[in-house]
Design a protein that fits this description.
It comes from Grammatophora oceanica. The chain is mainly alpha-helical. It contains 13 helices and two strands. It starts with a helix and ends with a helix.
């Protein structure tokens, strides 16, 4: 039989009878037969309750050999090492985890790693992790979290947090919804850490929300009718558009002047002949 619940119920029966040897043999056999996640979790929970940390480590190693993509398993393994005061082992596990090519919930793993370093008081290590994560993903939530980290007691302070908000705002210029989320978080930060001038600076960047209509279509391009949606008009974008228009106008004027000068030169050459 391969149903994990049956294996687990039977192992619990052995535990109630205080027959740990049989319980272990059964769970080991269950892993060999079906290798379900629930069985690994149950077996580790048993050994943890018995205080058998080395047995837990061995089980986690087998667990992760079978499921190297499983972020919850990596996180639990790291938490085990942290709970017994093995900070370096914990870091080594996190490093091995984030190096995996395929992960089912990488954001959970990176958050766990960063939280661990912050709990250890390792601000520089946490900062390095944020920087590494931003090389992999430019998600707005990572930028916000990084800025909030710098604005916390373990970070470099409000000035550094603002610098990150500014950098994120520039990087997310083409992503309207993400820019709104960023500005909302930035405004909350300034209200808590800044002054009236810094709050106003962020307020001046806030967009105007405009209701629009667009045609909905299905996978084949068939029109399904009109729907309403909200678009955002950012003051910065309007200023940039006006600046670009001015540049184009200046370029057109310069081109016209050049053409006129070339025409005058041609007339002079004709007179000389």
């Amino acid at each position: 039989f391969s149903f994990s619940k049956i294996w687990i119920y039977l192992s619990k029966l052995f535990v109630r009878r205080k027959d740990l040897t049989s319980a272990r043999k059964l769970l080991g056999r269950a892993i060999g037969v079906c290798g379900k996640e629930k069985i690994f979790v149950e077996y580790i929970a048993l050994e943890l309750a018995l205080g058998e940390v080395d047995r837990c480590r061995s089980l986690y190693n087998n667990y992760l050999k079978a499921m190297p993509y499983n972020c919850k398993a990596w996180l639990k393994y790291a938490e085990l090492e942290s709970s017994v005061g093995e900070a370096e082992r914990c870091r080594a596990i996190f490093e091995l985890a984030v190096s995996q090519q395929t992960l089912d919930m990488p954001e959970l793993l990176w958050k766990g790693y960063i939280d661990f370093e912050m709990e250890e008081g390792e601000g520089n290590k946490a900062r390095e992790l944020y920087q590494r994560l931003l090389e992999k993903t430019g998600h707005v939530k990572v930028w916000i979290s990084f800025a909030q980290f710098e604005g916390s007691e373990i970070g470099k302070g409000a000035a550094e947090a603002r610098s990150i908000f500014e950098k994120a705002y520039g990087r997310l210029r083409d992503e309207k919804d993400e820019r709104v989320l960023l500005l909302d978080a930035w405004r909350v930060f300034e209200k808590a850490k800044g002054d009236a001038a810094s709050v106003q600076k962020v307020e001046s960047k806030m967009p105007r929300r405009v209701k629009r209509k667009r045609m909905r279509t299905d996978e084949n391009g068939t029109e399904l009718g009109w729907e309403e949606y909200f678009d955002y008009h950012f003051p910065d974008d309007q200023d940039a558009s006006a600046s670009n228009l001015k540049i184009l106008e200046m370029a057109a004027k310069w081109k016209k002047q050049q053409a006129a000068m070339d025409e005058d030169d041609s007339d002079d050459d004709s007179d000389d002949e």
